[in-house]
Amino acid sequence: MNSAIGKRLVLVLLLLAALVSLASGIKNAYHYSQDFQWDAAEALRLGYDPYDLSLGVNNVENIPELDDFYNYFESIEAKQKMEANQFPSLLILLFIYTLMPYRTAVLIWLISNLIFTAVIIYLLRKGYMKNMDRGCFAALSLLMIAGTPWRNQIGVGQHTLFAFMFFLLAVFLSDNDNDMAAGLALAVSYFKYTLTAPLALIFIYRRKWKSFFISLGVHILLTVLSALWLRESFIDMLIKPLRVSSALAGEGSIDLSAILGGSKIAMIIALLVMCALFIFSLKMRRENEELLFSLYLLVSLIITYHRSYDFFVLTAVYSGVNTLACRLEGRGGKILRISYFLFLLYLFFGLRIFSESEASLALAALLYYTFLIVYTLLVLRPDEGFIQKG
After folding, report:
1. R_g of the chain, CA atoms, integer Å
2. N or C: which end of the chain has fewer CB within 10 A?
């Protein structure tokens, strides 16, 4: 078969798979979106402490404005419990969605996530994947939408699309030397800080200190305002969300905490890894941003709690993989690309086939950690001069 015809056939098949996935994700999102955290944001807006409600200190049944939310999920036999595992400065970002009834908010959130997806694709093409072959980029974009992670991300109403889009927007604005706007976009991206906190080190690598500190300052200010709003201490506004999120520490897919059964050792390892990434950000040579971006993406998904629906961002890892593969001599680059696509296909489709059984997750972890270690060692090879001296 002619190679050009073969490539077109692959794109057509991926397009069909993406359309099926899109339809399924939209259907699930309209009926469920249980991870939206509309209830937590609404409670905060009304002046109730969503963390006390999540920890059982107070009862959500005492808040009539939340009746429609909980009654809906009971009607579809998917009873909900408030889990406000986001800091108040992040829940405030959802206030606009709480100005409408929950069922309307779900529809608007679904539309928002579809827009976020389109913008992610656009920003990747304008940024980290601008030099990639057009056909390959199209195939990766369709593969992202066709994969189970993206479909589940849409279906349960998660926030990773929201956060990842704003991170890429921050990078785009930084590329255009708009440091103030980049800092504000970066601040919004922290909604999924388990993903974007490691990625934010890119701004350390770029020495964009203004943007970085603006992003932190926004949340300090919003946390102070939240403490005043709830008439609680600033420290409580930091500790209480962590107490809620700690209950989920061991419930991820293949992250360190899930593998170690929620042990505190995972947290210590995560802190050490973040320190190492910070050093990389200071030491890596300027022409290696794609390599760092992909490394930070890979690391972010395993050093803290993540479920498989966050794996859709792994298509963006090809930015660094492709750059590194082009620098390797002989068959090394080809083997790296093939290894990447095999492990990506397994995470996108294999886990679904095996219903994320323990054995399938164990294999996923083996593939993921092996690829991460190999990629990291290749990036840090001293003979390539990736690390600047002095």
Report:
1. 21
2. C
pLDDT score of 60: 78
Q: What pLDDT was estimated at residue 382?
A: 62
Q: Which amino acid type is present at position 378?
A: L
**C-alpha closest to that of 141 among 162, 109, 118, 160:** 118
| Residue 267 identity | M
Work out the number of other CB atoms within 10 angstroms of the CB of residue 371.
Answer: 20
Taking each continuous run of H as one helix and of E as one strand, the counts in the chain are: 21, 0
pLDDT at 184: 97
- pLDDT beneath 70: ranges in the chain: 1-2, 250, 382-390
In the chain the first and final C-alpha atoms are separated, in Å, by 53
Residues pairing with 284 in the sheet:
387
**pLDDT at position 84:** 92
Query: In terms of Cα–Cα distance, which of 310, 218, 205, 187 is closest to 255?
Result: 310
Helix (H, G, I), strand (E, B) or coil at 387: strand
Spatial CA neighbour of 92 closest among 227, 255, 232, 292: 227
Q: What pLDDT does residue 384 have?
A: 55
- At 154, which amino acid appears? I
pTM for the predicted model, two decimal places = 0.95
Report the distance separating Cα 161 and Cα 33, nearest Å.
14
Name the residue with tokens 């704003």: 166
3-state helix, strand, coil in the chain (%, to 5): 75, 0, 25
pLDDT (0 to 100) of residue 175: 95
∠ CA 370-372-373, nearest 5°, is 65
Report residue 302 as tokens: 């395993």
Are 215 and 183 in contact by the 8 Å Cβ rule? The answer is yes
DSSP bridge pairs for 387: 284
